[in-house]
Amino acid sequence: MLSLAELRRFLDEKRQAITPADGAVIGAPIQSQEVWAAGVTYRRSLEARADEAVSSDPYDRVYVAARPELFFKATANRVRGHGQEIFIRSDSTWDVPEPELAVVCNSRMEVVGYTIGNDVSSRSIEGENPLYVPQAKVFDGSCALGPAIALAWDYSPSDRAIELEISRSDSVVYRNSTSTSAMRRQIPELVEYLARDQRFETGCVLLTGTGIVPPSDFTLQEGDVVTIRIDGIGELTNPVRRHIAR
Fold this sequence. Notes:
This protein is an alpha+beta fold.
């Protein structure tokens, strides 16, 4: 895979305006990469996970610890793009979107760009036991990325507004915003920990945590529409479906 410098030279030589055809579907900007995620990087995320958990102690400790929380989120086939359906679990009663700045890395773990991520999560399952995090986080349609990648040399992730809007029956039922300036941890730190003792032959995508968590009396429902906006990247919109129990 190209280094950051090689990729920049290649794209500078090939750069041209591209207008999608009418009716074109914008797929997720991912091919074979794994998606990983960082947790408890914002104060709001700490508060929400402590509230949902049987014991808040693990989340209190990781927020101030030297080592960040990092977990596997999705393979490429589990990821949805702009306009595609995201899913909530059939066995969950409390589900939320998690709007996040996503970092795109090459095989050298150099940051080559940024996009919008939605780390769809089951708070009822994770709150029951922290050991259930993989089930709360990893399932088909549990992640969305897009609509495009802002290239690292053209985009600063600092102090970027992140907005979340959830609509139900054409009415907005939840809206909130935060900023990447509220992150406790720095992106280079998260990438460095993720790269320790493992290789990503085709690169990876790292979700950097959420600073927006809907209140405990809110849960996603089938038919909802989730829209996430990040300053300088664009807008990622996905309708919500519920998995059918087998």
